[in-house]
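This follows on from our talk about sequence and fold. Please put the record directly below this note.
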Amino acid sequence: MKHMHWFTLQSCILLVPTNKGHLHTNLQVFCLRWKEYHMSKSSRRNILAFGVGAGVAGLAAPALAATFGNPDEPPQGIMNTKGNPRSAFDPGPQNPALSRQFPGTFTPPATDVGSLPEFWASFNNAPRRVQAGGWARQVTQADFQVSTEISGVNMRLDAGGIRELHWHQAAEWAFMTYGNARVTCLDPSGRAYVADVKEGDLWYFPAGYPHSLQGLGPDGCEFIIAFDNGMASEYNTLLVTDWLTHTPPDVLAANFGVPAETFSKMFTHDLWIFQGEVPGPLAADQAAVKNPKGPPPNPFTYSLGSGPITRQTKGGFVQIADSHNFKASTTVAAALVTVHPGGVREMHWHPNADEWQYYVKGSAQMTVFNTGPNAVTNNFQAGDIGYVKRNFGHYVKNVGNTDLVFLAIFKTDTYQNLALSDWLTHTPPALVEAHFNLSAQDIAKFPNNIPDVMPR
């Protein structure tokens, strides 16, 4: 080491060989530029690395230190552009109207790190299939790769509009977002069910159960369907018109006990959605399908929106429907969550199923956390879809000026939730203190009753 000199510049130590005299001159230039760098207000991230000869062992500016709310080294986010804001400028082709909708991705919180599969999708940009009587659009796993357990459909039926008699390979769970509809269903014991549903109501039809949907007055209906299979498609259902038109006439005659000519005026194409007359009184339809066995033991409809509130705080409230109160729904559980402005659906995870979200109204920010660490933030508006894999930590914050309302839907018979604050307040305090450098007094202030929604 007798042929080396040590130089200390701020917190940086440089090791410079002395066997070539010109290195001293280059080092003087480096020192001058280093001084100019520290005297300027340039970004701390623009690290100077001026070579001082081939024999230099290494020159590096000090890395930015991590801070509270910005834990990674090097730190994440916009703070890296301090003193040099053009580092974050996007001069290239862009759609400002679109990027403004996603501040969490364009300018992520400093606590974001790594990456996750895209967990945002939307019905707003899904193609609509429009027919006389209504329309539908869908988002399946083919469009939304992460969504393996649930696929979604958004459908509108005019007053009298009919979604024709059909059945599915997957169970159908639905939430009414607008208007009124009449639904019918038949179970394997031949027990028929007819009911009217309104905004906030649900229906559930097990896989294979034949059913129909029809809009009522004055303005029909709109609803969200969730199938308990990410690849299930509304455009690939088993339609009664398809089956009959592709069955030989003599077989139809033998099956129904009428002359084959009875079916000669049938449509030669499926109807899917078509316009019909607004149905008459509900009681008349119920009487027309009455079976001596009576109705199905568990109703296929349930009023979630006007049902009991499971938990309520100053921040909002949660309503839950699963097989405990909506007994027919054996493969889908759901929570309808209302978050007041500034409130947060608390940090939590679900151990028994992925979460498929539908945003009914309002504006939300959600960060999803997984091992790695990976923590990614995104924004959601009405009509958008979110997806969180089971056991991934997450929160949902209302970032708008009105109530945020969203559905959380799970492929399971029972709603399960684990809240972070509930875990920490039911762990020995000394153990929690050791993890977070908190006092017992701090920990005692945490909510210990699973509030679900915390106020501003």
About this structure: The longest strand covers residues 172-186.
